[in-house]
Structures are given as structure tokens and as C-alpha cells.
Amino acid sequence: MSISGNMKTPLLLLLLLFTLGFLTKTTSSCLAAERDALLEFRAGMNGTLKRMPSWEEEDCCNWEGVVCHPTTRHVVKLKLSECIQDSKGQVHQMINSSLLALTELNHLDLSYNHFYNVPIPKFIGSFKKLKYLNLSNSFFIGGIPLEFRNLTHLRSLDLDNALDPEQQHVGDLDWLTHLSSLKHLDISGLLLPSLTDWLLPSNLHGSLTALITRGCNLISIPVSPSNVNFTSLEILDISDNHFHTTLPQWVWNITSLTHLDLGFAEFYGTIPEAIGALTSLTYLDLSNNYIEGTIPRAITHLLRLESLSLQGNQLSGSLGSWIEHLTSLTLIDLGHNILNGSVPTGIGKLSNLTSLSLCYNQLQGSVSEIHLENLTRLEVLDLSYNYLKVSFDPNWVPVFQLVLVQLSGCEIGPQIPRWLQLQTRIDALDLSNNKIAETLPSWLVNVSSSTLTSLHLSGNQIKGKLPTFSDASRLINLRLDTNQFEGQLDDLFSCNYSSTEVQLPSWSNILELSLSNNKLEGVIPLFVCNWTGLDFLHLSNNSLTGEIPYCLGESLKGLVTLNLANNILFGKIPTTFGSLLLLAQLVLNNNGFSGQLPSSLQNCTYLSYLDLSHNAFSGNIPPWMGESLQGLQVFRLGYNIFSGDIPQQLLLLEELKILDLSNNNFSGSLPYYLGNFTAMASISRSFEFTEYVDLVIPTKGGNLHYPYKSDLTTSLDFSGNNLTGEIPPEIGRLIGLHNLNLSRNHLSGKIPQELGEITLLESLDLSFNDLSGTIPNSLADLNFLSYINLSYNNLMGRIPSGSQLQTLSDPSRYMGNPRLCGPPVSSGCSVMETVDKVQKMRNFEWIWLSIAVVLGFLLGIWTFCGILLFKREWRYAYFRGIDSWYDRILLQLLFCLARLSGQD
Ligand SMILES: *[C@@H]1O[C@H](CO)[C@@H](O)[C@H](O)[C@H]1NC(C)=O
Ligand SMILES: *[C@@H]1O[C@H](CO)[C@@H](O)[C@H](O)[C@H]1NC(C)=O
Ligand SMILES: *[C@@H]1O[C@H](CO)[C@@H](O)[C@H](O)[C@H]1NC(C)=O
Ligand SMILES: *[C@@H]1O[C@H](CO)[C@@H](O)[C@H](O)[C@H]1NC(C)=O
Ligand SMILES: *[C@@H]1O[C@H](CO)[C@@H](O)[C@H](O)[C@H]1NC(C)=O
Ligand SMILES: *[C@@H]1O[C@H](CO)[C@@H](O)[C@H](O)[C@H]1NC(C)=O
Ligand SMILES: *[C@@H]1O[C@H](CO)[C@@H](O)[C@H](O)[C@H]1NC(C)=O
Ligand SMILES: *[C@@H]1O[C@H](CO)[C@@H](O)[C@H](O)[C@H]1NC(C)=O
């Protein structure tokens, strides 16, 4: 017995263990129905879900993204964020309602999945226990299902970009009223343009802790606090909307706020002292509005503030009184305001500061190592474009390692700050537009050599050879333009590659390179073709010579901007340019290029800016230019030897704003339907060209130079050709035109009256043509006209008197038209008009009759005239008064005659 008794204990133990094991085995496994539901869901996704190996296991509670209840084993959470592989809409996805088998689900996350052409499934509204729903960045189509009203237990709803902006139609938000448990609501990106009361059902106000309506196209917001009763709100983000009203005052009463974002929302007004009540704030963003006034001192109460973004407003005043008190700050962005005063040294107390941006203000005084010495965590420093003088002790050893250094326009120089040598992780360094005047120190190319991607030294007086970079350079963006660099492009690399066998650096990272406005010589080396990533190449205003490498077109397939203007280059445009399918700006003016336009340019359908002026190109304008290059906005062929007719197809260039065909050998007539240049036929004051284009526009007799990013004015220039025929009256439809030059052709006929409809015209040159008739009175209404030249035509009659034409009083602008009269060429018109009218009458058959009448008249006044002839003083007095009464009598006589002839 004792043995059996002894035996019993381990047996019992075994049994216990077995049952326990059995129990745990059964309870640890997920419910079969739920497992099947999940598999059905995956099948419905048609293979677009990423591979999740764990989903092959038996127990679905162990599957990636699936969380079960610890005891009931029901699936309670489904976290399928970023689970869809990019299917690009090729595959039909269906979110299977089988998921409804997950009856205990309280957390559903489908965020960051790009669903293609799939609406938000209505059945989601039937998950009765759902507390957390995240559909952000999933780009469903359609609207929010009304069934969502049933999600009464929902505490957090994130619909940020849940709907595709292109394919959404959001109705009202009535379903929201039912979600009375909601605390966190993010409906960013739902376009609610008609929603006048954006503030959602007021029953939600009290309980909400987060309200995020970023980019909802909202246009109105209550200003009065009586409609608003947020008492627990911690996060309020209503940025990126179009409120266009004053900052709402009720915001400053929500003392629970920790995160407030009112940026990009078209708010104006001032920041009130009341902001001091928001003592819990850690994040404040009022950037990119129209806020003005000073920054109130009460801001010093926000002692927890870590991030302060006020950039892009019109804030004034100084930093002195407040900034050093906000000691928790890690990020300050006050750029693009009109702040003045100095940068206080107290900024050094902000020991946690990582990012300091004060660019584009009116700050004065000096900044030196004293300001920055304690900022051990500083990574971003942007002081560009103030009136600051930034200078450092050459021996200073900074306590920080910067990532972004923007010190443009800071009067730095003549040396490059020596402390930069010690910075090992700079990503972007901008010292442009300073006073650096040394030759580049050799250490500069090694500054942060393993991290530097952008180096910008434009607009200094740096001398000597170009810096020599190693193949390992990570540079993406190199701008050394507008300096005094000498030597050749070869100098960018240490060996003379053209004569050695050394492997050439591929420099394949480089995207943007600008070496314009230097003193570089030599040819464009073939190794440029190895910079295969290049999209922006500016070598203009140097003394480069030779031809454009043939390989350039074949290799630099991503090239968008090519500017080689103002060099001594020659040869043809390589036919390989037909491979530059992305080319948008091709600027080759002021060189010695020749030959015809290669037909392969037809491929460059993105061209918007083409300047070939001041070269020796020849041949016709091929008709395909109008057909293929329909994006052209600026098209300049001036000062070449192009010939032939101007093809009608040019009128297809509807985007054209500057057309310069001047000083070639074009013949034939002007294109008739000029109104087809629709961009010129609509009013826009000016247009901006995105990047660096060197452009010389001849206006008002002189040249206007647009060296960099610039506003260009619309202009049409056909001058200096052999064009014949009349000026088409259609020209009056180009109401957006600022400059019109048709001079030095053989245009005939009248100046069309319709020119007066181009009300913005500033410069008009019709000189050296065969234009006849009178100057239309309508020209007198051109209020912006500041230059006119009508000289050397056959114009006649009185120069119209009008506000503008008379102030343009230089008579040389009318000379060479012997029959023009009136100010500014002569004081009166009587003699001239008489001669003209008499001449006109000579065409009529009754001329003899009139002569008889005139003779009679003359006889009648002979006595009077005789006296005039002999009495000198009387004669002078008479001719002085000629404008007044003699004119009138003569005119009356002529009228009579005209009436007589009319009755015939
Ligand atoms: C995807 O699933 C649907 C049914 O949901 C089916 O009609 C379709 O053929 C499947 N395959 C693709 C590639 O879309
Ligand atoms: C869910 O919503 C639909 C539509 O709004 C409604 O017809 C249905 O009765 C609701 N179901 C429950 C259980 O509330
Ligand atoms: C605001 O809400 C609180 C409770 O959430 C309530 O006591 C108070 O009366 C409300 N005030 C207004 C003006 O609605
Ligand atoms: C908002 O705060 C101001 C003072 O900052 C106070 O005068 C006003 O009564 C408050 N309004 C509400 C609705 O609490
Ligand atoms: C700086 O940040 C640290 C945490 O990174 C924090 O403990 C400390 O209090 C901060 N200093 C100030 C002055 O806010
Ligand atoms: C930097 O720290 C030192 C030592 O803590 C202090 O004496 C000095 O005033 C600080 N400088 C600035 C600009 O705050
Ligand atoms: C381009 O680079 C490759 C590899 O570095 C080199 O072999 C080739 O000669 C280079 N070509 C030119 C035109 O520099
Ligand atoms: C024009 O582009 C196509 C590719 O879109 C290319 O195959 C063709 O060779 C190009 N034509 C010329 C003349 O370069």
C-alpha cells in the first residue's frame, strides 16, 4: 500500500500536468471561426498584402498584427498598418466582411495602406465594441459611410487622408454626433468645403482631447467663444485651411492645450497677451499666416514650450525681451518676418536648442561665437538674409555639431569661418552672398565629407581654381556661381583625366551644378557625361569654348535645365538632345552656335524656356516647333540668321509669353491670328521663372538683364526682319502684352486702332516700316506706355493728344514721318492738315470745281493777304493765330465741298 501510495503522488501529478497542458493547449489557440475570417480577408486582398510568414501558423493569436484577449482568445486588435505592397491598382482588392466574425474587436488599424478604388467598407460600422479606428493614409475612395454612426464606443478616430483627395465626396458629418465617447478625432484631408460650422457637434466639445482638421478646405471658423466649449482639449490642429479671418479668441482660453497648430490657415490679426494663459503648451505653430504686430511679452509664461514656429508672417519688434526666458525651447523658427533689433546673447541660455532659424528678417548687429557658445545641441542654424554681421574668432572651437548651416548674406568674410573645419556631420552648407574673398582653403572639400550633400558658395569673390572633389563626394548640389574662379572644369578632379588612364570619378550623385558667372576657360569636358544624375547644369557667363559634348544628350537623361549662355561655345546642337525628354530650360544665347535646329528637339516636349538668341543659327523655324513644344513660355531666336516664313503652327504655342524672333531674315507676313497666343491674351502682371535663367530682354531701347530668379514680362519682338504686309488687327487681343516691337521691317498699311486695347503696353516700337495713315487716337489711352517709337514711317496727321503720349515728348520718336504734326514734333497741325486734305481732294472729279471756288475765295481775300504780304509785323501776328480762326474757316469750306460731293 505504501508503495502504491508512494506511486499515487507522481501519477496524480502527471495527470494534473497533462490536463493542465491540454487546457493551456486548447485555450492558447485562437477561435477557429475568427481564424477562418482572417484567412478569408487575406484571400480577398488578392495577394496585395505583404508576405507575413507567421500567418501560416495554426494559432492566429501569434500572427503578425493580430492581438487576442488573454483569456477568451477572441481577436481584440487588428493592426495592419503598412501591410499592402504597392499593387498600383492592377489588382482588385476587396476588404472581406468576413472580418465581422471578430465580434470582440475593439482596435482596428488599416493605416498607411494604399487601397485602390476601394470605398471604406460599410461593415466597419458594425464592430459594436470598436474603441480605436485608424484609416489614415489609406486613400479609399468615396465618402465616410453613414454606418459609422453606430460606433458609439469609439474613443479614437483617425481619418487623416483616409480618402483619396482626387476621388472623395464627403457629405455632412452628422454621423459624428452619435460618437459621444470620442476623445481623439482626426479628419485631416477630408475636403469639407461647404461646412460652415466646422466645429462639429457641440456635444463632443467637452470630451474631446484632440481635434485635428488639417487641410480640410475649411473656410469658416467661429470667432465668438459662445459657440465653443472645449474644456479638455490638449491637441488642436486646424492648420492648412482657408479661414481668412482674425485669430479666433477662444483658443487662448483652452488652458489644457499642449499642442496648438494654426499654421497655413490665412489668419490675420495680432497675437494677444492672452496667449500667456496657455501655460501647458509645448508646441505652438502660427506660421505662414498674415499675423502682424509684436510678439507679446506674455509668451514668456509658456515655460514648457519646446517648439515655436512663427515664420512667414509680418511680425515685428525685437527678440530681446522674451526669447531667453523660454528655456525649454528646442526649435525656434521665426524666419520670413520683419523682426528687428539685435540677436540677444541670452539666446545662449536655451541650452536644449537644436534648431534656430531667423532668416529673412531685419535683424541687425553682430552675431559671434558668444551667442552660440553654450548651445551644445544645436544642429540647425539659419541666420540668412538679415542685416547681421556674423563673424567668428578664427580659433573658436564650437560645442555643437551642425547639420544644416545657412549663413547667406551675413557679411562673412574675407575668410571662410575656420570653425567649420571641425564640423563632421554637416549636410547642407550655404555661405552664399557673403564677402568671402580668399582662395578656397583645401580643407573645405573635406568638411563633413561623408555627409555633405549641398554646398552653396555663390555670390562671393572667391578666387583661384575650382575646388577639387574626390570621387567619394556625396555632393548632390554644388553652387559656386558668381565668384572669380579661374581655370578649367577639369580642376574639379585632382588628375588631368584627359591625359591619364586613371579611372574617372562618376560623381553620380550630383543633381545640381552651377558654375555660372566665373572666369572659367577651356572646354566642357567629356566627363560631364558621367554625371548621369544631373538635372540642373549652369555654366553660363564664363569663357568656355568648344562644342557641346555629343554624349551629353545620351547620358544626362534627367537634365531639366541646361544653361550655357554667354560663353564662346560653337558647333551645332547635338542631335542627341532628343533624348533629353525632361528638358524644360535650354539656354544657349550669346555663343557662336550655328546650324539648323535639330528635328530631334521635337522630343523635348517639356521645354518651356528656349533661348537661342545671339548665335549664328540658320534655316527655317520648323513647323513642328509649334506642334511639339506646346509648353513653351519663353522662345527666343533673336540675332541669328534664321530665314523663311514664320510658320502658322507657331500660333499653337498657347503658353507663350515671350517671343523674340528679332534680327533674323524672316520674310512673309506676321501670323494673322495672333490672339491664339492665349497666354499673351490674358492679363497677368508678370510671371516667375523658377530658377536661375540668364536672360537679356531688349526693351525701351536698352537691355534689361534678368540674371537670376526673376519676374519676366510678356513681350513680342519681330523687329529687324523682312516682314511685309499689314499688322493684323488681331494684335489687339494680346491684352497681356507689355512690350511690342515690330520695328525695322517692311510692314505697311495702317497702325491698327486695336493696339489701344493692349492697356498694359509699356513699350511700343513700330519704327522703320512703311506704315501709313494716322496714329490711332486709341494709343493715347495706353496709360502704362513709357516708350514709343514710330519714327521713319509714312504716318501723317496729328499726333493724338493723350495723357501718356504727350509726356513721351522726345520728337525723335516720330521723326522721319514728314507729314506728322502736333506736339511734340510741331506746335500745330494746320498747314499739314490742309495739305493733306487738299491732296485728298485731288482724287475727286470735282477738283476743278473746288479749285474754282477756292480761287474765288482767294480772290476774295486777296486784298487781305496782299496787306499781309507787305506788312511784316501783321504777317507774323497772323501766322501766330493761324491755329485758331484760319483753320476754322478753311475747314468749314472743305466741309462744304465734301457735302456737295456727297450729294452727287
Ligand atoms: C481579385 O478578386 C476578385 C474577386 O474579389 C476577382 O474577381 C479577381 O479576378 C481577382 N484577381 C485580380 C487580379 O484582381
Ligand atoms: C447601424 O446603422 C444603420 C444605418 O445608419 C442603421 O440602419 C442600423 O439600425 C444601425 N444598427 C445599429 C445596431 O444601431
Ligand atoms: C461647457 O461644458 C461644461 C462641461 O463640459 C459645462 O459645465 C458648461 O456649462 C459648458 N458651457 C457652455 C457655455 O456650454
Ligand atoms: C477667456 O479668457 C478671458 C481672459 O483671458 C476672459 O476674460 C474670458 O471671460 C474668457 N472666456 C471664456 C468663455 O472663458
Ligand atoms: C532639456 O531637455 C532635457 C531632456 O532632454 C530635460 O530633462 C531638461 O529639463 C531640458 N532643459 C530645459 C531647460 O528645459
Ligand atoms: C554659457 O555658459 C557659461 C557657464 O555656464 C556662462 O558663464 C555664460 O554666461 C553662458 N553664456 C551665455 C551666452 O549664456
Ligand atoms: C565615366 O566613368 C567610367 C567609370 O568611372 C569611366 O570608365 C569612363 O571613362 C568615364 N567616361 C567619361 C566620358 O568620363
Ligand atoms: C525620342 O524619344 C524616344 C523615346 O521616347 C526615342 O526612342 C527616340 O530615339 C528619340 N528621338 C530622337 C530623335 O532622339
From TrEMBL:
The chain crosses the membrane at residues 846-870. InterPro entries: Leu-rich_rpt, Leu-rich_rpt_typical-subtyp, LRR_dom_sf, LRR_N_plant-typ, LRR_R13L4/SHOC2-like, RLP23-like. Residues 1-28 form the signal peptide. Residues 32-68 form the Leucine-rich repeat-containing N-terminal plant-type domain. Keywords: Cell membrane, Glycoprotein, Leucine-rich repeat, Membrane, Receptor, Repeat, Signal, Transmembrane, Transmembrane helix. Pfam families: LRR_1 (PF00560), LRR_14 (PF23598), LRRNT_2 (PF08263). Residues 223-432 form the Disease resistance R13L4/SHOC-2-like LRR domain. The keyword NAD does not apply. It is found in: Cell membrane. SUPFAM superfamilies: L domain-like. GO terms for cellular component: plasma membrane. It is a single-pass type I membrane protein. Belongs to the RLP family. This is Leucine-rich repeat-containing N-terminal plant-type domain-containing protein.
